[in-house]
Design goal:
The complex is a heterodimer of chains A (about 280) and B (about 650). With about 280 residues, chain A is α+β, with helices and mostly antiparallel strands. Chain A folds into two domains: about 120 residues, no CATH class; about 120 residues, Sandwich (Immunoglobulin-like). Chain A has six helices and ten strands. In chain A, the strands form two sheets. A five-stranded mixed sheet of chain A has the order 3-2-1-5-8, with no helix packed on it. In chain A, strands 4-10-9-6-7 form a five-stranded mixed sheet. In chain A, a hairpin with a 4-residue loop joins strand 6 and strand 7. Chain A is elongated. Chain A starts with a helix and ends in a 20-residue tail after the last helix. Chain B has 22 helices and two strands. Chain B is globular. Chain B has a single domain, classed as Cytochrome C Oxidase, Chain A. By secondary structure, chain B is mainly α. Chain B starts with a helix and ends in an 18-residue tail after the last strand. In chain B, helix 7 runs antiparallel to helix 10 and helix 14 packs antiparallel against helix 18. The chains are: A alpha+beta (about 280), B mainly alpha (about 650). Chains A and B meet through helix 3, helix 4, helix 5, strand 7 and strand 8 of A and helix 7, helix 14, helix 15, helix 16 and helix 17 of B.
Chain lengths: ~280, ~650
């Protein structure tokens, strides 16, 4: 793209590229391209480095999808950022007129460049189309239930300021910790008894608001054993920051044992309307 | 030539004795006195009649009393400041005399005119600048309080209730400040001169717009003494229904603010469309005028939705209506939609004027024509058009209409195309220019850095699966601070430095200004980079307490916030000291070509001796055949000196 920027309106009859690169303009292009490339490499290194130190562990297929998206989007943005910053930096270095009086001469009166404008708009449109297609594909895959396993339904109830979880397919047991079996899709039916909360598992990349009088849902498949956090992500009043609990992904056998310990029975369907849950004291 | 204008600040009081009329005795102070008396009287009566804790039928009494008192304050203030004198006289069949109009315009009144219902657009511009900087200072102090509390986990300085109240106050005060920070001062002060007009289309409406905004600030401050708001500035229902009476004050404040901005927006649109100089076609209109006009159109479309939402919230709270109460058939999603139909265009209302100011000064400091002026105009108009079609991306995780996630992802990602056009115009203008690194140009570079990061992180949030992870996390907070503080605020500061000499007749202290620029840039990037990382690792936003794993990021963030604070104090010092003692500025210290640089600094009342004639656009750098005006309308400064006087940093 930096090639186009150099092209002035009068550059109509063009000598071969090798000749043009030896002109002063050509040398400028090479220098700018170098700056932009170096910046791109630095930004790409940054793209690979930042997820390592910041993202939570991946515990579901959804979270894997989210992390891929974040990585792909940052890689796609790196050259764009490098291009803009590189050109701005190069201009500042090489055409700096100081900070004193008004520069005695003006720059060249370049008012526009149609080819560059078209290239830029087409380029950014293609990038946008790529982001959109990627996003729609990821959206479809994260909202589609896998067909190879029977999903587990869990009712999630938010209230000021705690979470409770009901297992209507396992005898209707209730828990304040979220226990999930590994590799089995889970559907969360989420509601609230008072104000809007937001049910968030950072390690699984899922979030859905808990609304009073409405049931919303989301789904995911836990893929790793271990502990995770359940947080509220919508300001819900005084103790919003303490509205969190922990959860655990366990083996299916351990899950059945846990259900029995809780007094439920695995697989026993209890018709529970998620909106008829009494608030706990 | 500038000296004579400075003196006009000081020649005062000579004409004040001519003619009587109550409006010569009214000013801000009488407004405050009448407003406070009205509020107290109304509150006492309302409390007597409406509040009875023993009567369950009167449960809404405290809310009704607070609403009545706040409305009484606004009306009382407007009466006391003299906003209704002229309409009242007109109603009585006694219209204003020419002397009265000249008095209203602030002729020969010295500093006192800044505290009156003055119609001169330049006075209104100064009033807006001072108000915006004051409210920005208040919002900044609140931000530092929040960051201080969050420096360490645990209960710390104060608990959740005070914290939530502070978050809401910080939010709304900053939103109001940033909405007015460019359009208020520079849309009013510079825009009419830039188009070759002697004042705005409706000078009295202009004064009314400012003096309706002024009483809003005490209303927002009163929220803190009425129990605060637990909701943040989004005021989501049904939490807003639980809130203490602070919520009522908040809603009245929003309603008055929207009225004020609507009055101002209509005025700006009419002025820019009908009062441009002879020969100033849209193609020859400076990009800043275009940006301010587009912003005003957008604000006029978007902000009333917030007003409707707040009126309905007030009815829910004070009259047991049930617009947003789910138990009685209301819908919290209705509120969320109303809010975000305002909420997303509103960020462009903040951003576009700052972008337009940056676009206006980049050619001046690159000594090159604006590259692709039509592309810039197209970009701005596309931003306006697209921004009203993207609101539901704030509701991706709300559960409302999941099938609309795809379409709203599409419209949101389309916004990156016009944003890309703005970047093309900026770097195209800088390319091969004579980069004159005065302070406004540093701010242009700061804008390029910050706004690029803000824009790219916005793309992450436009993607639905990624947003499911990042929504409601600190990542979002960092993202919009990069666009609104790092982008728009930096643009607004550039505008202050750039147009300071025109407003005050004195040059801005660029030495201290440069120190402040670097301090703010470093502090800003440290603060919000740390927030990005904490957000990515799962820290929610708007929490009063957090897990110890986020300690390091929060400490860095807090340290950075203090660095921003120091930078802002430096900028404030530079502004105040330059205003008082800065070297006298020439009419055109930057060698710029737009019309405001042809009139003296500061411009006289009514700006031009004769109306100017425009023959080309204002960006003819490097092209002697392209002349913006050969009849600038001001005889004394017809030949514009291209060199600055002193104060080179």
């Amino acid at each position: 793209m930096s090639n186009d920027i150099e092209e002035l309106p009068e550059a109509s009859s063009q000598p071969p590229l090798s000749e043009r690169l030896k002109t002063p303009e050509g040398k400028t292009i090479i220098k700018v391209a170098t700056v932009v490339s170096v910046l791109t490499v630095l930004l790409l290194i940054f793209c690979i480095w930042w997820p390592l130190i910041s993202l939570p562990p991946t515990m579901s297929d959804t979270e894997r999808e989210v992390k891929n998206t974040l990585l792909i989007f940052s890689i796609a943005s790196a050259p764009v950022m490098a291009l803009v910053w590189g050109i701005a930096y190069y201009s500042l270095r090489h055409w700096n007129a100081g900070s004193g009086d008004t520069p005695p001469e003006d720059g060249p009166a370049i008012r526009d460049n149609n080819r560059l404008t078209i290239a830029w708009v087409v380029g950014s449109s293609l990038l946008t189309a790529f982001l959109l297609i990627w996003g729609l594909a990821a959206l479809t895959s994260t909202t589609t239930l896998p067909t190879d396993a029977k999903p587990l339904t869990i009712n999630v109830v938010g209230q000021q300021w705690l979470w409770s979880f009901q297992y209507p397919e396992d005898g209707g047991i209730t828990s304040n910790d979220l226990i999930l079996p590994k590799d089995r899709p889970v559907i969360f039916n989420v509601t609230s008894t008072d104000v809007i909360h937001s049910f968030w598992i950072p390690e699984m990349g899922i979030k859905i608001d808990a609304n009073p009088r409405v049931t919303t849902n989301t789904l995911t498949t836990p893929t790793e054993l271990g502990m995770f956090n359940v947080r509220c992500a919508e300001l819900c009043g005084l103790n919003h920051s303490y509205m969190e609990t922990t959860g655990r992904v366990v083996n299916p056998a351990d899950f059945e044992q846990w259900v029995k310990d809780k007094g439920g029975s695995p697989g026993m369907l209890v018709p529970l309307d998620v909106n008829k849950i009494e608030p706990k004291e | 030539m500038a000296d004579t204008e400075i003196v006009s600040h000081g020649t005062a009081h000579a004409e004040e004795s001519n003619g009587g009329g109550i409006m010569r005795r009214l000013n801000m102070w009488t407004g405050i006195v009448v407003g406070v008396i009205a509020a107290v009287v109304v509150y006492v009566i309302a409390a007597k009649l409406l509040v009875n804790p023993d009567n369950e039928d009167m449960a809404q009494g405290p809310d009704q009393a607070v609403i009545a008192a706040e409305v009484a304050w606004v009306i009382g203030f407007l009466v006391g400041v003299g906003a209704f004198v002229a309409p009242f006289r007109w109603l009585m069949g006694k219209d204003q005399t020419h002397d009265d109009e000249m008095f209203l315009a602030g002729k020969g009144q010295g500093v006192g005119r800044y505290l009156r219902f003055t119609t001169d657009h330049k006075v209104v511009g100064v009033q807006y600048l001072v108000l915006a900087m004051t409210t920005f200072g208040v919002g900044g102090i609140l931000a530092l309080t929040i960051r201080t509390k969050l420096a360490t986990p645990g209960e710390g300085l104060f608990g959740g209730q005070i914290y939530n109240g502070l978050v809401g106050m910080h939010g709304i005060i900053m939103i109001v400040s940033t909405i007015i920070m460019v359009v208020g001062p520079w849309g009013n002060f510079i825009m009419p001169i830039m188009i070759g007009a002697r004042d705005m289309a409706f000078p009295r409406l202009n004064a009314l717009s400012f003096w309706t905004l002024f009483p809003v600030v005490p209303i927002f401050l009163s929220v803190a003494f009425l129990g605060g708001i637990p909701t943040g500035w989004v005021a989501y229902a049904p939490l807003s229904d639980q809130a203490p009476p602070g919520m009522d004050a908040f809603a009245v404040g929003i309603i008055m603010f929207v009225i004020s901005s609507g009055i101002g927006a209509v005025n700006l649109i009419v002025t820019a469309t009908t009062m441009r100089a002879h020969g100033m076609t849209w193609n020859r209109t400076p990009i800043f005028v275009l940006g301010v006009t587009a912003t005003s159109v957008l604000g006029l479309i978007a902000l009333p939705c917030f007003e409707v939402g707040m009126i309905e919230t007030l009815l829910d709270r004070s009259q047991a209506a049930s617009f947003f109460v789910p138990e009685q058939g209301g819908s919290q999603w209705l509120y969320a939609n109303l809010f975000w139909i305002m909420g997303h265009p509103e960020v462009y209302v903040i951003l576009i004027p700052a972008v337009a100011a940056i676009l206006e000064m980049t050619p001046v400091f690159s000594r090159k024509p604006l590259f692709g002026a039509r592309v810039a105009a197209m970009g701005i108009v596309s931003l306006v058009a697209l921004s009203v079609l993207v609101w539901a991306h704030h509701m991706f995780v709300s559960g409302w209409a999941p099938t609309l996630a795809g379409p709203f992802m599409l419209t949101t990602e389309l916004i990156s195309i016009p944003t890309g056009m703005i970047f093309l115009v900026l770097i195209g203008t800088i390319w091969r220019g004579k980069i004159w690194t005065r302070l406004p140009m540093l701010f242009v570079y700061g804008f390029l850095w910050n706004f690029m990061i803000g824009g790219i992180t916005g793309i992450f949030l436009s993607d639905v699966p990624a947003d499911n992870e990042l929504h409601g996390a600190l990542f979002v907070t960092a993202h919009f601070h990069y666009t609104l503080l790092g982008g728009a605020m930096i643009g607004a500061m550039a505008a202050i430095v750039y147009w300071f000499s025109k407003m005050t007749g004195r040059m801005f202290d660029e030495r201290i200004g440069t120190w402040s620029f670097y301090t703010i840039m470093v502090g800003f990037n440290v603060t919000f980079m740390a927030m990005f990382f904490n957000g990515l690792s799962g820290m929610p936003r708007r929490v009063a307490d957090y897990d110890p794993q986020y300690l390091i990021g929060n400490m860095i963030s807090t340290a950075g916030a203090y660095v921003i604070g120091i930078g802002m104090l430096l900028f404030l010092y530079a502004t105040v000291s330059s205003w008082r003692h800065g070297p006298i500025a020439s009419a055109n210290p930057w060698g710029a070509k737009t019309l405001e640089w042809y009139v003296p600094s500061p411009p006289p009342l009514e700006n031009f001796e004769h109306l100017p004639v425009v023959t080309g656009d204002a960006y003819g750098y490097g092209d002697p055949t392209s002349v913006h005006t050969s009849h600038p309308g001001v005889a004394s400064v017809a030949s514009v000196p291209a060199h600055t006087e002193g104060n080179a940093s």
